[in-house]
Amino acid sequence: MAESGLLFRSLSDIAEQIRRQEVSPLEVTRAVLDRLEQLNPRLNAVLTNLGEQALEAAKLAEQDLVAGRPRGPLHGVPLALKDILVLRGVQVTAGSKVLGAWVADYYATVVARLKAAGAIFVATLNLYEFATGAMLNPHYGPTHNPWHLDHTTGGSSTGSGAAVAAGIVYGSLGTDTGGSVRIPASLCGLVGLKPTYGRVSRHGVVLLSWSLDHVGPLTRTVRDTALLIRCRFPI
Asked: Could you tell me the CATH number of the domain that includes residue 126?
């Protein structure tokens, strides 16, 4: 299977292929990380490359699948997170330098649910500083739109839009306070959803506005968005 065809399959399709053992979690994760290395110098979508731990997770996912122990509907699927959601053992920046070298010791609730469903996290993604402000992040620089490098991805979930549109990952998480999932989705040709307030836990999300913040997915298809919603946000 050609790498380009592998990377631009929908999240739902790649999850089904992994489940059927037509393609392995390790093969998929390696392809994703190779594309990340190739494209990120131009896109500036990724803040932290989690390649080493992602490959270890993929090896375990492959072993579990062969042993008949599927973890859930996202078993072995590479995803990425806006760097405002807490991921245990990984530095959280929220697009700023104010937090210093803070390394989280727990998972955001939505991240824990994706992990329980079998997802593999390959990167944390660029954003506007603390999910607000101007398009140019003064600390980490702007993210470039993969459809035209001179154009913006919108914000504040800049890296989340670029990474999915460029085929670096099959889906990502962003946050939306005043359009910060929906705008990047629109400008990058993706599906972005702002769920109903209270539908999604904000535990483990660096706060912008407690009364307005939402966590939402960015994917390439409506079906993929529905799959992430079911995995992450059970009623």
From this structure: 3.90.1300.10
